[in-house]
From TrEMBL, chain A:
Belongs to the OST5 family. Component of the oligosaccharyltransferase (OST) complex. The chain crosses the membrane at residues 25-44, 51-76. Pfam families: Ost5. This is Dolichyl-diphosphooligosaccharide-protein glycosyltransferase subunit OST5. It is found in: Membrane. It comes from Penicillium vulpinum. One of its GO terms (cellular component) is oligosaccharyltransferase complex. It comes from the Eukaryota. Subunit of the oligosaccharyl transferase (OST) complex that catalyzes the initial transfer of a defined glycan (Glc(3)Man(9)GlcNAc(2) in eukaryotes) from the lipid carrier dolichol-pyrophosphate to an asparagine residue within an Asn-X-Ser/Thr consensus motif in nascent polypeptide chains, the first step in protein N-glycosylation. N-glycosylation occurs cotranslationally and the complex associates with the Sec61 complex at the channel-forming translocon complex that mediates protein translocation across the endoplasmic reticulum (ER). All subunits are required for a maximal enzyme activity.
Automatic annotation (TrEMBL), chain B:
Belongs to the OST1 family. GO terms for biological process: protein N-linked glycosylation via asparagine. It comes from Penicillium vulpinum. The chain crosses the membrane at residues 476-493. It comes from the Eukaryota. This is Dolichyl-diphosphooligosaccharide--protein glycosyltransferase subunit 1. Pathway: Protein modification; protein glycosylation.
Length: 77, 502
């Protein structure tokens, strides 16, 4: 099967990104805001429970938020 | 349709991301004193030379007969060594069945005895004794036109000369042959008239077409030359791109295909006799008079192209205009260089734009598949009536980080796509580290020499695998980094550094 036939066979499944271009800024901004708030709360009360309940979601939100924000500003990573 | 598939790398493990698998086209090394075996005869040969553009495009239809007692399948086409590397998009097909695709062609090194280099055409099936096949041979020859006079005034007409042999250089005896030249206009002030090669006037002129021959060359030894030179008006720029670097960057997170092209451009037309006059240029530009300078480049962009930019060594060039596409029609990027590019002048610049990835990328085997297939133009480039020749083109397809099992294919149609065979395209995989990358992005690099804008519509298909883990590498790396900072902050905060009695 040639690669062009693979392309033709896949006509029903175009690539759909997780977050569309129009929503990248709002999603990225909100996630970064969430990361800032939770990270601030963690810094105010550093505890083992705080790492799990605040640090973990803050790091997760920052990870995804940073990726979407850099895409939103035109650097498509 | 016939397709060529090349598997570049089987599996690119993350730890081997920097590894490359270079496929370098090789050339056959012929022994000194090599002469192609005289097993064929060209019964009839018609060469069509098109001089309408700033390069030479030749299409040769030749009826080949096997005069040997054994079936034969290797047909040699000679070129002088100094011309060989300027031959671009070489392609041979069965003229009567072009849909069967191009024939495999090998390139040879120069033979020291006669200084020739050969294209060795492998017929798909050996040609039986006394059988015939009609070959359709097409190629372009770059940088074979010389301006004469070499220097002109700013508003003068430009003339180009082209020299060739009335007898087509061939490794085999040719019974009859003729050459049809097609000029861009009827203004052909000088051309060679032959004497004694045929009865009647030679060439025969009909509008913009000049025909040399037909000649009866059954008794002429192969390789015999009879020099012809023509000089014709070509008041257009001879646009030559010394190097084009084209990057296509695939972003799954951004849903974007970013294209950037970097051009090193030169006008190989007549140089200016005197210093450039801005006043004279403004005057002739206002009249839209024909000029040998590059005034503007028109670049059609695919529908959906957005965010175009045009930058040169100084910075943003504001004298460009973008007419976005409406519906399915192509957009148009009109680039006006910072200064008109006259003969001998150089200009380097870069342009880029974005497209939605959904138009170019599909999941290869269902929605949940980790395998993707990308189809995009190999070369786009400005669309100019005078044509553009590219001495070297480097296309980089930057795939997402962690992409592996990369394969590519150049799409072939029933007509020439202006490219050489896939075996003559340098392809290799490498890793490119840029924003937010840890391992680097898998990059497929395709390098082609001697192309023309005939290759504008060529397309390629790339398939690759990219798992969910590969996709999550970027946010996960940032997550791990920040989480480590939090744990470290908590850990450091637990250390008791107070000064007190233990």
């Amino acid at each position: 099967m040639s690669l062009n036939e693979v392309w033709e066979a896949a006509s029903a499944t175009p690539f759909i990104p997780l977050i569309g271009k129009d929503s990248q800024f709002s999603v990225g901004f909100n996630l970064l805001l969430l990361a800032l708030v939770t990270a601030t709360l963690f810094v105010l009360n550093q505890s083992l429970l705080g790492i799990v309940s605040l640090g973990f979601p803050a790091a997760l939100a920052f990870g995804f938020g940073a990726v979407f924000m850099i895409c939103a500003v035109g650097v498509y990573v | 349709m016939r397709f060529f598939t090349a598997t570049v790398l089987g599996l690119l493990a993350p730890s081997l991301c920097a590894a490359t698998n270079i496929t370098t086209p090789s050339r056959l090394d012929l022994p000194s004193g090599f002469k192609p075996p005289q097993v064929f005869k060209n019964t009839n040969l018609v060469r069509n030379t098109n001089l309408e553009k700033s390069y030479v495009r030749e299409t040769i239809n030749v009826v080949v007969e096997n005069v040997d007692k054994q079936p034969q399948n290797d047909y040699y086409i000679p070129f002088p060594a100094e011309v060989f590397d300027r031959v671009g998009g070489f392609e041979v097909r069965d003229k009567k069945a072009p849909e069967k695709g191009r024939f495999d062609v090998d390139y040879t090194e120069a033979v020291s005895s006669d200084g020739n280099q050969y294209f060795v055409v492998h017929l798909p099936e050996p040609l039986d004794p006394k059988s015939q096949i009609t070959l359709g041979i097409s190629y372009s020859v770059l940088s074979s036109l010389s301006p004469l006079p070499a220097t002109i005034g700013q508003a003068d007409k430009q003339y180009l000369t082209y020299s060739f042999s009335a007898y087509m250089p061939s490794a085999y005896t040719t019974v009859t042959q003729k050459t049809k030249l097609k000029f861009p206009s009827t203004n052909v002030p000088d051309y060679t008239t032959t004497d004694g090669l045929k009865s009647g006037s030679d060439p025969e002129r009909k509008g913009v077409t000049y025909t040399y021959g037909p000649y009866d060359t059954a008794n002429v030894a192969p390789g015999t030359e009879h020099q012809i030179t023509v000089r014709y008006e070509f008041t257009k720029p001879v646009i030559t791109v010394n190097l084009l670097e084209r990057d296509l960057e695939v972003s799954h997170w951004g849903g974007n295909l970013a294209t950037e092209e970097r051009y090193w451009l030169r006008n190989n037309g007549s140089q200016l006799t005197k210093q450039f006059s801005r006043v004279e240029w403004t005057f002739s530009n206002y009249q839209q008079a024909p000029t040998s300078a590059v005034r503007e480049l028109t670049y059609p962009l695919l529908p959906g192209s957005v965010d175009p930019y045009f930058i040169d060594d100084i910075g943003n060039v504001s004298t460009s205009r973008y007419r976005p596409s409406v519906g399915r029609s192509a957009g148009s990027l009109e680039l006006k260089p910072r200064y008109p590019i006259f003969g001998g002048w150089n200009y380097s610049f870069r342009i880029g734009w974005n497209n939605d990835l959904a138009s170019f990328l599909r999941r290869a085997a269902g929605v949940d598949s980790d395998s993707y297939v990308l189809k995009a133009p190999l070369i786009e480039g400005p669309k100019m009536a005078e044509g553009i020749q590219y001495e070297r083109v480097i296309v980089r397809v930057v795939l997402p980080e962690g992409a592996h099992n990369v394969r590519f294919e150049i799409i072939e149609g029933t007509n020439s796509n202006g490219l050489p065979g896939v075996n003559h395209i340098h392809a290799h995989l490498s890793s490119l580290k840029t924003y937010m990358d840890t391992l680097g992005r898998t990059t497929l690099t395709l390098e082609v020499d001697s192309l023309t804008d005939e290759a504008r519509d060529s397309q390629f298909v790339v398939t690759y695998d990219h798992s969910m883990f590969d996709a999550l590498r970027k946010p996960f790396t940032i997550f791990v980094g920040l989480f480590t900072v939090f744990v470290a902050a908590w850990g450091i905060g637990k250390i008791d550094v107070s000064i007190k009695k233990r």
